[in-house]
Every structure is written in structure tokens, then in C-alpha cells.
Design goal:
Blueprint lengths: L16 H6 L4 H19 L5 H26 L7 H16 L11 H19 L3 H24 L5 H15 L12 H5 L12 H7 L6
């Protein structure tokens, strides 16, 4: 259950080179983007509330992200639909990752997706809480960055240590044992809480996984 050492086979999503480039991001670019992005979010929230309230709002944002990570992966990224447009959307968002899980340029969410989503979440937070809602956004986006970093490491690093190995094993089972389970990447306890944990590697449907990985007709 290790993707390292395998030559990545890139899935072409768009015939346009410009559009295709927008679907890719390297680990270095990701690190630079969010090393700048997260402090800028914190700066935007500066002086909007006191330190204790800000810390609580960051924690709320983190909790919201943890639930979002699980729900989005389980119900959106693995949406089972008979609609052709829906099938292609799922493949565009996530199905291509199951076809080529060790492609390092598609193990992280590209900014063409993460930035608009972040702006939308930020707008909702500010609408609900006022300017201090920026701190909720900071917690949400910090959780997202941690999630994507862990996801990248699961596919591209050996992840030593008991925690790292547990995270990697959990996600590799999603890819190689049964994609209808182990949806959480960071908060893996959610799979046990919601009954979607893969507790046995025997008798799982590898054939079903392979069938689901076929790119839908455009």
C-alpha cells in the first residue's frame, strides 16, 4: 500500500494547455502560497476582536473544516450519479486522483479551487459574525492546509512514526482496498464515528474500484 517508486501517469483533464496547467500545483508552490496566505488572513482579522475570542473562533473554524473534509470527500467527491455531467464533474474533482493517485502535481488542491472556496467561506463567516469572522476563516483554511499537507505526504512520503504510519495506512486503504470507506484524511476518528472505517482488508471489491476509475465520456 505504498505509492512511492511508481512512475505517475498523468490524467489529461483539458485539451487546453492553459486550463490543464490550472489543475496542477507543486509542493513548493503550495508551501509558498499558504506561507503567505495564512498570515494575510490573520492580518485581515487583526484588531477585530480580543485574543481569547479570536482563539475560540479559530478553533470553531478548525472544527468546521474537519467536518467539511469528511462530508465533502464522502458525499461530493464520491457522489454516485447516473447523470453524465455529474459523472464528469466527480471525475474532474476527484476521480482522476483515483486513476493516478501518486501524481505529485495533483496531490494538492490547486489555487484555482482553493482560493475561490476560501473567499466564499470568508464571505459567509464575515456575514454571520462580522469582521471577527475572519478568524473562523483562519481556522478553516489552516485545517485545509494541514489536510492537504497530510494528503500529499500519504502519497509522496514514507511517513515514519506511529501517527504518520496510521494516517498513511488509513488513506492507502481508501485507495487500494475500498474507496467506499476511510474518507477522512486527518481526523480519521470520524470514519469510526460515522461507520465508514475499513476494519478488514479481506473481501473488499477491488474490481468495483477499478470500474469506478474509468474516465467518463465527455
Amino acid at each position: 500500500m505504498n505509492d512511492r517508486g511508481r512512475k505517475p501517469q498523468r490524467v489529461t483533464l483539458f485539451q487546453s494547455k492553459q486550463l490543464e496547467a490550472l489543475t496542477l500545483i507543486s509542493a513548493k508552490s503550495f508551501a509558498i502560497l499558504w506561507a503567505l496566505g495564512l498570515p494575510l488572513i490573520a492580518l485581515a482579522g487583526w484588531n477585530t476582536t480580543d485574543a481569547v475570542t479570536a482563539s475560540m473562533l479559530v478553533f470553531v473554524g478548525l472544527l468546521v473544516w474537519i467536518l467539511t473534509e469528511y462530508v465533502a470527500h464522502r458525499f461530493l467527491f464520491h457522489w454516485d450519479t447516473n447523470m453524465a455531467a455529474g459523472k464528469w464533474l466527480v471525475f474532474l474533482m476527484h476521480g482522476n486522483h483515483h486513476v493516478s493517485p501518486n501524481d505529485p502535481l495533483r496531490n494538492l488542491m490547486p489555487p484555482i479551487v482553493s482560493i475561490p472556496v476560501g473567499l466564499l467561506v470568508g464571505a459567509i463567516c464575515v456575514a454571520l459574525v462580522g469582521p471577527a469572522g475572519t478568524w473562523i476563516l483562519l481556522g478553516f483554511m489552516s485545517g485545509y492546509v494541514a489536510y492537504d499537507a497530510v494528503h500529499y505526504a500519504c502519497h509522496q512520503a514514507s511517513m515514519r512514526g506511529s501517527v504518520g504510519q496510521a494516517l498513511k495506512r488509513h488513506h492507502m486503504r481508501h485507495h487500494h482496498i475500498d474507496e467506499a470507506g476511510n474518507y477522512a484524511i486527518t481526523a480519521i476518528f470520524l470514519d469510526y464515528l460515522f461507520g465508514s472505517a475499513i476494519t478488514s482488508v479481506a473481501g473488499k471489491s477491488a474490481a468495483r474500484n477499478a470500474a469506478r476509475q474509468e474516465p467518463p465520456a465527455r
